[in-house]
Every structure is written in C-alpha cells, then in structure tokens.
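sanity check this chain:
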Amino acid sequence: MDDGELGDAVTQARDGDEDAFGVVYREVHPMLLGYLRGLVGEDADDVASETWHDVVRDLDGFRGDGQGFRGWAAAIARHRAMDHMRRIKARPRTAAFDETVTEPVTPQDSAGEALDNVSTQQALALIAELPQDQAEAVLLRVVLGLNAPMAASVLGKRPGAVRTAAYRGLKRLSERLAAAGEQAGRGEG
C-alpha cells in the first residue's frame, strides 16, 4: 500500500470507518511489531498493544499522510518501548521475529540487498549486534519503511544523523554477510 492509500485509510478511520481502521492496522501492525521486537524482544506484543491503545485514543488529533502516520505510530511505539524498558530496568533485548511478520523493503533501499539472502531471524540477530543508534535507524528505515526525516523525528535526531547511522549499520551488515558467504564457500570446497 502506498502512502496516499494509507493516508486515505487513516482519514476514513479518523472519521469513524471501522473497516478503514482495519486496513490501517493490517498495513502498519506487522512493521510496527517488527520494530518493537528489535527494541524490547519478547515483550513486543504487549508494547504493541499499548501503542495501538494510544493510537486509537489520539487518532482524532492526527493530521498527515501515510508516511506521517507510520512515523507518528513509530514515535508512539518508541515511547511505549522506552517506558517499558524503564519499568523493567533492563537494557533493550531482542528476540526472533515471527516468521509470519513481513519486512517490506522499498526497491530504492540498499537494505534490500543486504537482507535479501538471510532469514528474518538471522537478520534480527545481525541487527541486534549493531550499536543501538545504527540498529534503531535500520529498523525504522527498513522494517517500518520511514524516510530519514520521519525516522529522525521518531529518534529525536537530525535526518543526516539517521541516514549516517542507517548507512553504517547496513554497511556493517553487508560486510558480515559477505564474510559469512566467503566462509560458507570455503567450507563447501
């Protein structure tokens, strides 16, 4: 679903159309859940539930397009995740993605090349090894499909800092995948 279609569905949902809200939920929830799994691991479902509660509560006040809605929902999710981590007084944890969670990758995004040949579980394990700023930037840009300004708004950083963190994270992932491929090639020969 493109940003225009999502924006239209959000507008209809805001006007009380339950079917439109279902469309919005089905479009955004898998990506939001993937992002949250990268932040809070096994507790992602609980945090996602809190996030959707806040989204429903505050939907009347939202104005924007599909990309704006994704960013707004990601910001709410991040706040709920940070609240959750403060409550449990733990560092961010990761867990395997459900295999049913899809990862939309935009064609112009170099992340697609880095992640095409690994399973979601392997990808999350690799992302979990990145520094937190790089991991969050990759999750927001790849899993949620946010542009740099929107991801920057979620993280409270400048767009250039998010682009740099995502680039470095993707480069590091690509290097690890290449090294793993070379080792597998030597093991087969």
Remarks:
- Confidence is low (pLDDT under 50) at residues 98-108.
- The two ends are 44 Å apart (CA to CA).
